[in-house]
Amino acid sequence: MIETELHDLSDDADYAASQQQGSQSITRSDSGRRSEPEGAEVVYMKDNVSIHPTQYMSERISGRLKLIKQGDSLFLTWIPYKGQNTNTRLSERGDSDRNNLYTIRPLPLTDVRSIRRHTPPLGWQYIIVVLASGLAFPPLYFYNGGVKEFLTTIKQHVSLVRSADDANVFIVNDFQDPLQKTLSSLELPGVVSVAAQSTNASLVASSSQVNQGRSDVSSYDSNTGSQSLRRQKNKSNDPTKDLSIQVLEKFSLVTKFARETTSQLFGENSGDPFLSNEWKRPSHSQSLPDLQSQPSTNDLEEVPCEVPVPADPMEFEKLALVWGKPRQPPMTKEEWITFLDSEGRVVDSNDLRKRIFYGGVVHELRKEVWPFLLGCYDYNSTYAEREYLRSVRKQDYEIIKLQWQSISPEQAKRFTKFRERKGLIEKDVVRTDRAFSFYDGDDNPNVNVLHDILLTYSFYNFDLGYCQGMSDFLSPLLFVMEDEFEAFWCFAALLERVGPNFNRDQSGMHAQLFALSKLVELSDSPLHNYFKQQDCLNYFFCFRWILIQFKREMRYEETMRLWEVLWTHYPSEHLHLYVCVAILKRYRNKIIGEQMDFDTLLKFINELSGQIDLDSIVRDAEALCICAGETGEACIPPGTPPSLPIENGLVSSQLEDEVL
Amino acid sequence: MATIGHNNLNAKLVLLGDMGAGKSSVVLRFVKGQFLEFQESTIGAAFFSQTLAVNDATVKFEIWDTAGQERYHSLAPMYYRGAAAAIIVYDITTQESFSRAKKWVQELQKQGNPNMVMALAGNKADLEEKRVVLAEEARTYAEENGLFFMETSAKTAKNVNEIFYEIAKKLPRAQAPQNPAGMVLVDRQGDAARASSCCS
Ligand SMILES: Nc1nc2c(ncn2[C@@H]2O[C@H](COP(=O)(O)OP(=O)(O)OP(=O)(O)O)[C@@H](O)[C@H]2O)c(=O)[nH]1
Ligand SMILES: [Mg+2]
């Protein structure tokens, strides 16, 4: 079961202190009240609340955060200031589009699952708002403070409890019962999107229009739905009502709604810049050769279309032809030497990463090159320094390993956590890549080495522990590195980046799935709209891809090739997300044409395993990444795994905090 | 949810249970007649389908096989929502897997479809010498909770087809006139014409 002991906020000193200040913020907000529609009251307002679309401080977008009470409902908005041009790099691309992407239009707090508060040792406090759908908004940084008041104000209007798992997570609309909570948090992406649509326009106008918007939705389903929807609306802020029934009601409605209005919705969003169908090509796209004259290389599967499939706004398959550079043969030993100076330093790490990005490395070199890519060795280190580091790390590893090796059976009897962990690991190592020669056969010693490394890691990073999927990451590392301790340190380095994939609250996965949804929205809005209608915006069908970086989707050798390519972080540290987009786009016609629903989609995606052509997908992903440019990177909130440590103290502390 | 088209029934079935209990192995045995000594762990979820003939009708199972580790628990409702049947699998050689199975039963009783057909499978029955969960204990529990119980072995194939066959027989044949809110009908083209043919 999920650990869900929840306790009330009032035990929190911060909270108690902020209770006293609460009234001030409301008074302060009085000026804002006038501009709000009739019947709506601003109960909280904070200026200079900003998002950081990229790691560059200069690209932050500042805005005003408000909590607005209307009737029994509380809404959250964040509107970026107009005419911000803090950053010259962005000026030619139109800030307004970018700002629009992040605007939080009146969002009912009933759609919020939790709010996570971060307090980095250096820098500003920020919050992450996680929706019931599992999606999350990018972090909101409070330049002028006010997080406590923000939480206090919410607490005054809707149920807010602190999670026992994490003192910085505040759960909104908690139903006490963990199962109801998961039900509501995971099953209802469609509800969120419908609600968001209907409230998009609301508070800008009058409160009657809010109701109008709501009944528009219900009118799609005039037979059975409108009644219950209205009922549900009235109930939605009454925590005493049986929420699980309400949740189920909503769910059936939305499913039906989505099914019946599939075709209607396709054209609907064109007026909304947030859902714009237009793909914004970078300005240099003018210099592209005439795409029409290219021979058609469309190798996409032709599917009998059962419904008209909206055209891909990017003419994707042609794009790859222009942008994605041809792949190269893997880097050889001879080439590798040319990147090193006489003492063994990598002279130009950018060049090296670029080279590896375009072709990978020959297998024999992996043992030498991977530790650089993973950040185990500094590119500037010399042969001698690395030799020294190796000896230190060998000892360090042995020390950590002794921590569990010295646990006697007597002690183990009294150490449940240890026994549990060991049990999980034992179950998994015996079924990790056993068909692959390195791990096959009875009593294969390499299987024991996997076990020892994983158990040692679970002591090294006791908080994270062991989680299914980790053995998939370790297996190729051990195969390549051969030495136990080197495999361990590479694994530890890799998990610095992908560890959040295994967070108990799934926050790392949510962050990536959210970014993925933004990237699909940006690069193929008809496909995005399709997923939205099918209730698939949580993108859980891509879960396995992201969790273990395509390890189960390809043959062993291909996985190693893809990983080294991804680890270069060459065009983007989030290239894996563009790989996801590339695969989805490749099959978009089939997905939409066959009207796949969530179940069918997940099955389809799982069955793509073994069918993904690595080189062409990486090429497509590169093309997408280049075309999306900064707009694409701006879709990915800072701290989304696998984030690189950043030199700048302020930013890096925030990212570290994020990893918690 | 189960839907009927002429004599054909589509039924969504979900497998739940502790990591390593043998969920994937049971499905694989049922669907492909195979057993892999080193069946890999399930990441996220996997989907299979298999059709069974029961008397004069066929039942097409759409099977969701989930990941067992506790940490992925929060994803499970996505897969059991709207399911017509569930097999809760434990491993007769570990007590923890049996406790875990009970928790799943509780969760389904609370959150699942109220008409769901639930089966409890005590898997790895071939490992008699390592048994820790007695069949009687499990049977009593199952009876008290309205499940039916079988000990299975994905390895020897013991009771694997049987458990699916039993479920197929127990599935409600007649489509309830109105769907309880929140259930998703497996709505595929082809079985649009629905007759409420009733058997048993
Ligand atoms: N002896 C024996 N071994 C079995 C049986 N069923 C499964 N196993 C073994 O138990 C291990 C785990 O089986 P899986 O089918 O992967 O278990 P699972 O429940 O799907 O596990 P997760 O996907 O991790 O949740 C594998 O090594 C199987 O070979 C059985 O009936 N008898
Ligand atoms: Mg499995």
Automatic annotation (TrEMBL), chain A:
<protein>
    <recommendedName>
        <fullName>TBC1 domain family member 15</fullName>
    </recommendedName>
</protein>
<keyword id="KW-0343">GTPase activation</keyword>
<dbReference type="InterPro" id="IPR035969">
    <property type="entry name" value="Rab-GAP_TBC_sf"/>
</dbReference>
<feature type="region of interest" description="Disordered">
    <location>
        <begin position="205"/>
        <end position="241"/>
    </location>
</feature>
<keyword id="KW-0963">Cytoplasm</keyword>
<feature type="compositionally biased region" description="Low complexity">
    <location>
        <begin position="284"/>
        <end position="296"/>
    </location>
</feature>
<keyword id="KW-0007">Acetylation</keyword>
<dbReference type="InterPro" id="IPR000195">
    <property type="entry name" value="Rab-GAP-TBC_dom"/>
</dbReference>
<dbReference type="Pfam" id="PF12068">
    <property type="entry name" value="PH_RBD"/>
</dbReference>
<dbReference type="GO" id="GO:0005737">
    <property type="term" value="C:cytoplasm"/>
</dbReference>
<comment type="function">
    <text>Acts as a GTPase activating protein for RAB7A. Does not act on RAB4, RAB5 or RAB6.</text>
</comment>
<feature type="compositionally biased region" description="Polar residues">
    <location>
        <begin position="17"/>
        <end position="29"/>
    </location>
</feature>
<feature type="domain" description="Rab-GAP TBC">
    <location>
        <begin position="360"/>
        <end position="570"/>
    </location>
</feature>
<comment type="subunit">
    <text>Interacts with non-phosphorylated form of RAB8A; phosphorylation of RAB8A at 'Thr-72' disrupts this interaction. Interacts with ARMC12.</text>
</comment>
<keyword id="KW-0597">Phosphoprotein</keyword>
<dbReference type="GO" id="GO:0005096">
    <property type="term" value="F:GTPase activator activity"/>
</dbReference>
<feature type="compositionally biased region" description="Basic and acidic residues">
    <location>
        <begin position="1"/>
        <end position="10"/>
    </location>
</feature>
<feature type="region of interest" description="Disordered">
    <location>
        <begin position="268"/>
        <end position="301"/>
    </location>
</feature>
<dbReference type="InterPro" id="IPR021935">
    <property type="entry name" value="SGSM1/2_RBD"/>
</dbReference>
<dbReference type="Pfam" id="PF00566">
    <property type="entry name" value="RabGAP-TBC"/>
</dbReference>
<feature type="region of interest" description="Disordered">
    <location>
        <begin position="1"/>
        <end position="39"/>
    </location>
</feature>
<feature type="compositionally biased region" description="Polar residues">
    <location>
        <begin position="205"/>
        <end position="229"/>
    </location>
</feature>
From TrEMBL, chain B:
<dbReference type="GO" id="GO:0005525">
    <property type="term" value="F:GTP binding"/>
</dbReference>
<keyword id="KW-0342">GTP-binding</keyword>
<protein>
    <submittedName>
        <fullName>Ras-related protein RHN1</fullName>
    </submittedName>
</protein>
<dbReference type="GO" id="GO:0005768">
    <property type="term" value="C:endosome"/>
</dbReference>
<dbReference type="GO" id="GO:0007034">
    <property type="term" value="P:vacuolar transport"/>
</dbReference>
<comment type="similarity">
    <text>Belongs to the small GTPase superfamily. Rab family.</text>
</comment>
<keyword id="KW-0636">Prenylation</keyword>
<keyword id="KW-0813">Transport</keyword>
<dbReference type="InterPro" id="IPR027417">
    <property type="entry name" value="P-loop_NTPase"/>
</dbReference>
<dbReference type="GO" id="GO:0003924">
    <property type="term" value="F:GTPase activity"/>
</dbReference>
<dbReference type="GO" id="GO:0030139">
    <property type="term" value="C:endocytic vesicle"/>
</dbReference>
<keyword id="KW-0653">Protein transport</keyword>
<dbReference type="InterPro" id="IPR001806">
    <property type="entry name" value="Small_GTPase"/>
</dbReference>
<dbReference type="GO" id="GO:0006886">
    <property type="term" value="P:intracellular protein transport"/>
</dbReference>
<dbReference type="GO" id="GO:0012505">
    <property type="term" value="C:endomembrane system"/>
</dbReference>
<keyword id="KW-0449">Lipoprotein</keyword>
<dbReference type="Pfam" id="PF00071">
    <property type="entry name" value="Ras"/>
</dbReference>
<keyword id="KW-0472">Membrane</keyword>
<keyword id="KW-0547">Nucleotide-binding</keyword>
<dbReference type="InterPro" id="IPR005225">
    <property type="entry name" value="Small_GTP-bd"/>
</dbReference>
